[in-house]
Design brief:
Family: Belongs to the sigma-70 factor family. ECF subfamily.
Keywords: DNA-binding, Sigma factor, Transcription, Transcription regulation
Number of strands: 0
Pfam family, one: Sigma70_r4
Number of domains: 2
InterPro entries: RNA_pol_sigma-70-like, RNA_pol_sigma-70_dom, RNA_pol_sigma70_r2, RNA_pol_sigma70_r4, RNA_pol_sigma_r2, RNA_pol_sigma_r3/r4-like, WH-like_DNA-bd_sf
GO molecular function: DNA binding; sigma factor activity
Distance between the termini: 54 Å
Strand content: under 5%
CATH superfamily of the largest domain: RNA polymerase sigma factor, region 2, helix turn helix motif
């Protein structure tokens, strides 16, 4: 059987995996730019085509997300210009640019928060990680999970509350430290 994935180098596979992982964010970003226009799917498809065509131009070790989002932005702007020519778009380019900038800020903030959460989860002890995995990464109900680990539902709820509170504080502290470090 001829498998095209096997022909890719490890760096190409890593590129495709990372690109695949950010597809949802790219789509949300595109939708926010287009502000209700139904062309988001077409723009994302075109952006992915351009990204794959230009993959050799991407510098390993730099920020793929930022690079890909810039391509999405350019494709969305081209789409908006086409729509303006067709007299189907009423937004001006300044409004679209403002929406773009705000969307990038929000996406960057979400990425920072997710990174901080991952770091904070790693700081938990094994028992706390086990409770989180059992509750949020499994298909079991709270009652099923509590029975499996031999704890009451109320005890499990209290443990989860404590862990979430601990994670919330850790994420806030981590983000505050990052903000101080960046300043």
């Amino acid at each position: 059987m001829n498998d095209p994935i096997r022909k890719l180098s490890p760096s190409q596979v890593a590129f495709v995996e990372e690109l695949t992982a950010i597809q949802g964010s790219m789509k949300r970003f595109c939708i926010s730019i287009l502000a209700g226009d139904q062309g988001a799917e077409d723009v994302i498809q075109e952006a992915n085509r351009v990204i794959l065509e230009k993959a050799d131009e991407f510098q390993q070790g730099t920020n793929l997300r930022a690079w890909a989002f810039e391509i999405v932005r350019l494709q969305a702007m081209a789409h908006c210009k086409r729509r303006q020519r067709e007299h189907k778009l009423v937004f001006n380019t300044e409004l679209v640019q403002t929406l773009l900038e705000r969307s990038l800020e929000l996406d960057s903030m979400q990425a920072s928060q997710m990174g901080a959460l991952k770091t904070c989860i790693e700081k938990l002890d094994d028992a706390e990680k086990s409770v989180l995995r059992g509750r949020y990464w499994s298909e079991k109900t709270l009652a099923e999970f509590s029975e499996e680990i031999g704890r009451t539902v109320d005890a499990l709820k209290r443990a989860l509350f404590k862990i979430r509170k601990q994670l919330r504080a850790c994420v806030r502290q981590t983000l505050a430290q990052e903000k101080l470090h960046d300043a």
